[in-house]
From TrEMBL:
Substrate binds at residues 8, 66, 142-145, 175-177, 197-198. Its cofactor is Zn(2+); a divalent metal cation; Fe(2+); Mn(2+). This is Ribulose-phosphate 3-epimerase. Catalyzes the reversible epimerization of D-ribulose 5-phosphate to D-xylulose 5-phosphate. It is an enzyme of class 5 (isomerase). Transmembrane segments: none annotated. The gene is rpe. PROSITE patterns: RIBUL_P_3_EPIMER_1 (PS01085), RIBUL_P_3_EPIMER_2 (PS01086). Gene3D superfamilies: Aldolase class I. Pathway: Carbohydrate degradation.
Length: 217
């Protein structure tokens, strides 16, 4: 099965954002990954609700919105209204994770949980059946272009085992340092969705590169 590809718009040319979104529309990308950073939960600030709305206005692919923010529960409705079809919150930022996932689903969006590199997969054992997507961070969140963390393969494998043991239909997304070299091994470990930012947008031909990633089986 071909992987689902979610290019991260964070790595695009913001001065030509509409053009970048239209390029993704014409590509084989499955989602547009939108990284929201608040400068508190992660040491960087990206963009917020108005830019997400602008992306959505031109996008023909579903928006996969990754909330790297504190108190994400306060912004779920706003980002859903801005066009998010998937809303992922960090387990480290949600003391009442089950309630937050329920709130996302009540808004009609898919509910995702993002997991930082240091966070154990075992933290998901009581909640995995409520989760549509788990986003495994394969770099420390906050900045693009970082080196891929090798332990990610094992983490994906352990998460796949957990999903199968619970009979869940949760998809596994990997975000950070993804490229053509590590894609086959990530898929072998059980990944379903691959997020790629700098690797796609810094390419001479992003559309062709996305197609090559789709064929990495």
């Amino acid at each position: 099965m071909n992987p689902l590809i979610a290019p991260s718009i964070l790595a695009s040319d913001f001065a030509n954002l509409q053009q970048e979104v239209e390029m993704l529309n014409q590509s084989e990308a499955d989602f547009i990954h939108v990284d929201i950073m608040d400068g508190v939960f992660v040491p960087n600030i990206s963009f917020g609700i108005p830019v997400t709305e602008s992306i959505h206005k031109h996008a023909k692919k579903p928006l996969d919105v990754h909330l790297m923010i504190v108190h994400p529960e306060n912004y779920l409705e706003a980002f859903r209204n801005a066009g998010a079809e998937i809303l992922s919150v960090h387990i480290e930022a949600c003391p009442h994770l089950h309630r937050t996932l329920q709130a996302i689903k009540q808004l009609g969006a898919k509910a995702g949980v993002a997991v930082n590199p240091h966070t154990s997969i075992s933290m998901l054992s009581e909640i995995i059946e409520e989760v549509d997507l788990v986003c495994i961070m394969s770099v420390n969140p906050g900045f693009g272009g970082q080196k891929f963390i090798e332990n990610t393969y094992s983490k994906v494998s352990r998460l796949k085992d957990l999903i199968l043991s619970k009979g869940s239909k949760t998809l596994i997304e990997v975000d950070g340092g993804v490229n053509l070299d590590n894609t086959p091994r990530l898929l072998d470990a059980g990944a379903d969705i691959l997020v790629a930012g700098s690797f796609v947008f810094n390419s001479p031909d992003p559309t062709q590169l996305i197609s090559r990633m789709k064929e990495s089986v």
